Amino acid sequence: MTEILCYADSYMREFEATVVERTSKGVVLDRTAFYPGGGGQPSDSGELFVGGDSYAVGRLSRADGRLVHELRNPAPAEGAAVRGVIDWERRYRLMRTHTALHVLCGVVWRDYGAQVTGGDMKPLSARMDFELEHMSADFAAEVESRVNDEIKAARDIEVGSLSREEAFANPDLIRTKINLLPPAIREVRTVHIVGLDLQADGGTHVANTSEVGRVRVVGHESKGRINKRLRIEIPA
Questions:
Q1: 61 and 96 belong to one structural domain
Q2: Pair (17, 133) in one structural domain
Q3: Of 86, 117, 140, at which residue does a domain stop?
Q4: How many whole angstroms separate alpha carbon 144 and alpha carbon 138?
Q5: How far is Cα 118 from Cα 47, in angstroms, rounded to an integer?
Q6: Do 200 and 188 meet the contact criterion of CB atoms below 8 Å apart?
């Protein structure tokens, strides 16, 4: 089982690890700071270094419960000591984007009582779907203004954990319309935007909403009778 270091420290850019297995696609490490992907956030990319050799990591994937760092060239040997380096510019943009989605979700839940029905993100652009009957340009503009007010409030963001039982005892914590937590997960990681929102989430986030910068709602559309979509962008 690979220890995932970024769950505790989203700002970790480099780490030391050991290759525990080679696969047809890459290597499994005993520990990693690469985000493995999930919850709409794509996995990290970057490089692994062994002595003077470098190995480009294109993405991470899961195979039979193992977390594989997919490489674009032949893998280093099992037992090799490696230094991993995250593509930090891409990661930080994803952290800002993911945090922006949490602010958006928090505002829509607090002010309109709507649950999330889906979402996806790329660096500095994303979409989120909500259980809403109506959507309009005026509504999108109102949401954009309220989201940016929360970002400018410079709210701290804290990562914690709860037992599965504690998490499900709080009906506001599991914000998605359909519960996406696999039964095997006994500890639920939480992300708390202080003064705005507390959610179960496994992604990487900035430490304060001010780091997001500004959010623009660039599109809105209906995806069904009670399923509406908002698209956002975050200027670089």
A1: no
A2: no
A3: 86
A4: 10
A5: 31
A6: yes
